[in-house]
Amino acid sequence: MERSYASRSSGELATAASGSGRPVRVIPLRHPPGFGSISSSPPWWRAAVGRARSMGPLEWAEAALPCVAWMRKYRWKEDLQADLAAGITVGVMLVPQAMSYAKLAGLHPIYGLYTGFIPLFVYAIFGSSRQLAVGPVALVSLLVSNVLGGIVNSSSELYTELAILLAFMVGILECLMGLLRLGWLIRFISHSVISGFTTASAIVIGLSQIKYFLGYSVTRSSKIIPLIESIIAGADQVGEIPQGLPKFSIPRGFEHVILLMPTAVLITGVAILESVGIAKALAAKNGYELDSNKELFGLGIANICGSLFSAYPATGSFSRSAVNHESGAKTGLSGIIMGIIIGGALMFMTPLFTDIPQCALAAIVISAVTGLVDYEEAIFLWGIDKKDFFLWAITFITTLVFGIEIGVLVGVGFSLAFVIHESANPHIAVLGRLPGTTVYRNTLQYPEAYTYNGIVVVRIDAPIYFANISYIKDRLREYELNLPNSNRGLDVGRVYFVILEMSPVTYIDSSAVQALKDLHQEYKARHIQIAIANPNRQVHLLLSRSGIIDLIGDGWCFVRVHDAVQVCLQHVQTSSSSALKLASQASGDSADSISTLKAEKQCLKQDGFFKNLWKAHDGNSDSGGEVQPLLRQNLV
Q1: Where is the STAS domain positioned along the sequence (predicted)?
Q2: What is d(CA 232, CA 230) in angstroms, rounded to the nearest whole number?
Q3: Alpha helices in 272-403 (DSSP H)
């Protein structure tokens, strides 16, 4: 009958350890503070209330109006000159860009100037970035054109109304995401998808502007094939630009909200990806912190207010923000100066814009989007990670062939599929001890690390929850059946101890708890003991409350993997010493080989560690007294 290593108390483990002649020093694993209590960490709303109560008037003002943070520390002599230079530089750059992007969106050029006017002032007050240049951008303009062109003719008044309504919807979504702190959702879209999407979009945008150079009309589309066909087939207007500031008006066309919702969500996603990403990078370069949720709220307020003054969706521009930063902008005052320049252009300069050739505006668009063609990223991904290159390629191709919406959906779908696959199939490593240390590392990464017979140390590099627990159990069974090549300790023929190194495990859910209980029962039936090493506070607390610690035994929880291994080795040595003692007593009369074999056989039956030795000896039953040397050889 095999020996069973069921759960034992800490005292019994200490006795077992000292019984072998060499004591093992085990660092006790303490229960986390608050063990046994029902409540854990305070709920998020209570923490938020606590923070709100601790805030003073000035902190409340900064939370409501982020501009207060830079206004109260403004250095007039140092900062004003830099903000003026940056604001004037980017403002002059924005005037022709705004008109060009409005044409790209299928709108009259004046709406590009409107979009670069009110949102700039509003964002300077509510936005948290001090260098981000807000206004019309090429990618959003293309999205507006692509969606609205399929609903109504661009020459109709409804087209303009829907573009303005889209700005209102985008602003609402951005505000909601900022208030509900949902900016983290966009993290599931990989950089590869963004790069492939923007590269394909830049090509589509460039081709859409060729008509202004060729002198004939080109089909408005976000797909590459209709554009090329229209250019080859070879099947334009310089109109007046109204003078004056935009008037206040409520957006109309709310009956089309449901139809526009997917595009509003997509534009909101682009705003998060582009604007928040740029804003965070600029904040890091300029030495201040930026809250992405506050940034989203600021962009949302800018779009809502902009829609009340005939603006279409605005977001942060990569090119203008880069110029703003390089020009030395220190605060949001540079954005206010940009708005003043646009306002001056609207009031006094629009008659001059009438004679600007449309090919000049098209050249501005093409020049702006050329930098978005990121073929170097594809080359880099091919050499580094084929999976990311696949994401880039599939997004790029589908965006070119099937349009922006399909391209984004396919790219995001594959990105989420990869995330789910990685989460459901986490990395699991078998650990071995580095020679001369008490450090245990992945045996694949460190081939020189050695393992012990009968003991498997497994590290799970992910949270354990319902989606991956089946995979983890399958891998553990695989390690049990396919015994890893071990090179230390007694050759016991199979696994008797499974040590789970849980330091990377940040979370365990109820499904995983039940699965661990089932796994314990399976192991117990096969005389295998589970040990847990180095769980964090939350995981340890959950394992204790769920009864897992009681099932496996409190004495089988350790601070270090090395402690767990040493205790398991002591069990192996104690069992092997008892077996040798019985064998030597029965072999006192070396001439009586039959009684020796019977005694040793009885000993081997009592301890499962020596089954393999008995099988090895069965073939040499006539050799009599050769069992003891075989035992000693395997114990070395």
Answers
A1: 445-568
A2: 6
A3: 277-286, 292-307, 318-326, 333-344, 350-353, 358-370, 375-384, 386-402
Which of 123, 136, 131 lies closest to 97 in space, CA to CA? Answer: 136
491/380 Cα distance (integer angstroms): 48
pLDDT score of 243: 84
Continuous segment of H or E residues that includes residue 432: strand 428-433
Model confidence band, residue 342 (pLDDT cutoffs 50, 70, 90): very high
CA-angle at 140, arms to 135 and 142, nearest 5°: 130
Predicted TM-score (pTM) of this structure: 0.68
- Tokens representing 432 are 């071995």
Residues contacting 23, CB < 8 A, separation 6+: 17
Question: What's the Rg (C-alpha) of the chain?
Answer: 35
Cα–Cα distance between 222 and 150 in angstroms, integer?
Answer: 11
Residue type, 128: S
Sheet holding 557-558, edge to edge: 440-442, 428-433, 455-460, 497-501, 529-533, 557-558
Exposed, middle or buried: residue 540 (CB in 10 Å: 0-12, 13-18, 19+)?
A: buried
Count other C-beta atoms under 10 Å from residue 206's C-beta: 20
Q: Which residues contact 484 (CB under 8 A, 6 or more apart)?
A: 430, 443, 451, 456
CA separation for the pair 313, 168 (Å, rounded): 8
> Given this model, what pLDDT does residue 604 score?
44
Give the model's pLDDT for residue 214. 65
Measured CA distances, 629 to 449, 584, 590, 617, 623 (Å): 29, 11, 13, 11, 12
In which band, very low, low, confident or very high, does the pLDDT at 114 lie, cut at 50, 70 and 90?
very high
The separation between CA 110 and the C-alpha centre of its own chain, rounded to angstroms, equals 40
Q: Which residue has the higher pLDDT, 597 or 204?
A: 204
464: DSSP letter: B
Given a cut of 60, is residue 462 above it in pLDDT?
A: yes
Residue 617 has pLDDT above 50, yes or no: no
CA separation for the pair 548, 544 (Å, rounded):
6
Instruction: Name the one residue in this structure whose structure tokens are 């009340």.
Output: 308
Strands 315-317 and 428-433: unpaired
SS3 604: helix
Positive or negative: CA dihedral 324, 325, 327, 331: positive
How would residue 272 be classed by pLDDT, with cut points 50, 70 and 90? Answer: confident
* Strand (E) or helix (H) holding 516: helix 510-525
Angle subtended at Cα 59 by Cα 56 and Cα 60, rounded to the nearest 5 degrees: 85
106 Rama class: left (phi>0) / alpha (psi -120 to 50) / beta: left
Q: Among 406, 401, 394, 390, which Cα is nearest to 203's? A: 401
Q: Strands, E, within 44-84: which ranges?
A: none
**CA atoms lying within 13 Å on the CB side of residue 552:** 27
Q: What DSSP character marks residue 348?
A: I
Residue type, 192: S
> What's the CA gap between 509 and 488, in Å, rounded?
36
